[in-house]
Design a protein that fits this description.
mainly alpha, Growth Hormone, Chain: A, 19 helices, 0% strand, globular, Sugar/inositol_transpt, Sugar porter family MFS transporter, transmembrane
Length: 445
């Protein structure tokens, strides 16, 4: 049951990745169909993270009242409708609207799915389980790149976008038959149902042990006191969590990852790769490295811990970006292999660290009663800076060139390494209830 639920919730990550990555190959074809300006390209590409800001807010509003499961059900339907609308768009405006809709579903599911996974998983497996969501994001990105490479010679950008409806419908079917998070059930007073779900997820536990797990959840909930208001986020125990999770996502975005994901073929062109086929092939290589190193992250995150991986990731991406910046010099096509190698290294360091860890931290650190709202604040920061970076990237690239643009990303990664060294906590092997006892607003009094 745990494996099935992890696979299902993580499939929302695939939808996330597919709808983010597919625009890379579709955009050059779309601009020929609708004659879109450079600013229009930036806004169309950035429509997904812009919609995701609203999606994260809506998920925070309803994840506690409706439950994680129902929010994910609605997300899957919006995913399907948005994909079909994007593939059948007859104007630039309709296409932007469809991508805003997809962003809405991505923002909501990116909050609800990691929360759902973290609340389902036993402590010793939680890092790998939540990282499965990030893994499937990378699988979705790779799948979108492969779809782009197959359909690009036929100019079939509509099919590129519309195919996202298929996994969305699979998600909807699967989530209907899935149980709710035992921690949400406990929060709502459904104790017996929560014990039943814990027994399903961890069949090696006896009924008495499953009851003890739920009792710990109830104890942690009681320790948090009455339903806390927004002022609880200003308490001495919770405020550092808010600052850290928001900063982790901001630094993740200003590392430049989504500029690379969205504009990979354009970057390959600037690096000296001629022809759309070779650019897309190199882009697929980026997707493969992304997937493989995220698999590595799943195996090491619960062994080596969150903190050392985060520090290593920022150092590795910073060094890779220095090399990329040097190799992207204009009129030096002989440096193209070096640029591609450094880009692969950048993706590898990101995938094993900066990619999954902010999502994992976000789902672990906040107390249960504050979790949906705390995750929403972090998600809004994530998607807001995602929008800013993706929208600004083509403008900065056009005005300052690739050398300066990637150097800026490298500076931000250096700042991230310093920040992680001083502030990144370690949550490896600690139960959510133990973390909550340390950081609940009541514990500060």
């Amino acid at each position: 049951m745990l494996i099935r639920l992890v696979a299902l919730a993580a499939l929302f990550g695939m939808l996330f990745g597919f709808d983010e990555g597919v625009i890379a190959g579709a955009l050059p074809l779309i601009t020929k169909t609708f004659d879109i300006s450079a600013t229009g390209e930036g806004f169309m590409t950035a429509a997904v993270p812009l919609g995701a800001v609203a999606g994260a807010i809506l998920a925070a509003m309803y994840a506690d009242s409706l439950g994680r499961r129902k929010v994910l059900m609605m997300c899957s339907l919006v995913f399907a409708f948005g994909a079909v609308a994007a593939g059948s768009a007859t104007s630039e405006e309709i296409l932007v609207g469809a991508r805003l809709m997809l962003g809405l579903a991505i923002g909501a599911s990116a909050l609800a799915a990691p929360m759902f996974l973290a609340e389902l998983a036993p402590a010793k497996y939680r890092g790998a389980v939540v990282s499965a969501f990030q893994l499937m994001i990378t699988v979705g990105i790779l799948t979108s790149y492969l779809v782009d490479m197959v359909l690009e010679p036929h100019g079939a950008w509509r099919w590129m976008l519309a195919l996202g409806a298929v996994p969305a419908l699979v998600c909807f079917t699967g989530i209907i038959f899935s149980p709710e998070s035992p921690r949400w059930l406990t929060m709502k007073g459904a104790r017996d149902k929560a014990i039943e779900v814990v027994s399903l997820i961890q069949p090696d536990l006896s009924r008495e042990q499953a009851t003890h797990v739920v009792a710990e959840i109830e104890q942690a909930k009681a320790a948090g006191g009455a339903e806390p208001g927004w002022t609880a986020f200003l308490s001495d125990n919770v405020r550092p969590l808010v600052i850290f999770t928001i900063a982790a996502f901001v630094l993740q975005q200003v590392s430049g990852i989504n500029a690379v994901i969205y504009y990979a073929p354009i970057i390959m062109k600037d690096a000296g790769f001629d022809g759309s086929s070779s650019q897309l092939a190199a882009t697929v290589g980026i997707g493969v490295v992304n997937v493989l190193m995220t698999v590595v992250a799943m195996f090491v995150v619960d062994r080596f811990g969150r903190r050392p991986l985060l520090i290593l990731g920022f150092i590795g991406t910073a060094l890779s970006l220095v090399v990329i910046s040097f190799a992207m010099q204009p009129d030096k096509p002989e440096l193209a292999p070096l640029a591609l190698t450094a880009l692969f290294a950048y993706i590898a360091f990101f995938a094993v660290s900066l990619g999954p860890l902010p999502w994992l931290y976000m789902s672990e650190l906040f107390p249960l009663a504050l979790r949906s709202r705390g995750m929403a604040m972090a998600s809004v920061a994530n998607w807001s800076f995602n929008f800013i970076v993706v929208f600004a990237f083509p403008v900065v690239l056009a005005h300052f060139g690739a050398v300066v643009t990637f150097a800026i990303f490298g500076i931000f990664c250096t700042i991230g390494a310093i920040f992680s060294w001083f502030y990144a906590p370690e949550t490896k092997g600690v139960s959510l209830e133990e973390i909550e006892m340390q950081h609940s607003p009541a514990a500060a009094t």
